[in-house]
Design brief:
This protein is mainly alpha-helical and 139 residues long. It is 53% helix and 7% strand. The protein has a single domain, classed as Nucleotidyltransferase, domain 5 (2-Layer Sandwich), CATH 3.30.420.
Length: 139
């Protein structure tokens, strides 16, 4: 799997940057299990510090994978407002949903806390690995 990265970003710093809070998303989070909500309550970094750390973590990456292209768009927009570029650039965006469709690999049994960022990312990475293995077998 490799190294992992996770930080909580301070909401006020996002708003100061010009990003917006979506009320429906806030209400959705309020309906999630306590385990997932706890993941939001730890130490929070200013978005500029979080972006610097993320870009350092992903330095040299050809691609940045996300579960949905929407995630990539949000992160790219925030980085642009901070004067930074998405590692891998515009053409480096990769979407797990497309990979799953191409490989035809069904979702494995879920392990970990749903909607905990790191747990979700690890689950999705393992799903991607299974998809690549299936595609290799089809060759």
């Amino acid at each position: 799997m490799g190294d992992t990265f996770i930080v909580n970003v301070d909401l006020d710093s996002c708003i100061r940057l010009g990003l917006e809070v979506d009320g429906d998303t806030v209400m959705w989070w309020l309906g999630q299990k306590a385990e997932a909500q706890r993941g939001l309550l730890g130490m929070r970094l200013d978005i500029s510090d979080a972006a610097r750390l993320f870009c350092g973590f992903a330095r040299g990456a050809k691609h940045v994978w996300s579960h949905a292209t929407f995630d990539h768009v949000i992160l790219s927009h925030a980085l642009k407002l901070l004067g930074r570029s998405m590692p891998g650039g515009y053409y480096g965006a990769r979407d797990l949903r497309t990979l799953i469709d191409l490989a035809g690999v069904e979702k494995p049994f879920r392990i970990g806390t749903h909607h905990d960022a790191l747990s979700d990312a690890e689950f999705q990475a393992n799903h991607a690995i299974a998809c690549f293995e299936a595609l290799e077998e089809k060759r």
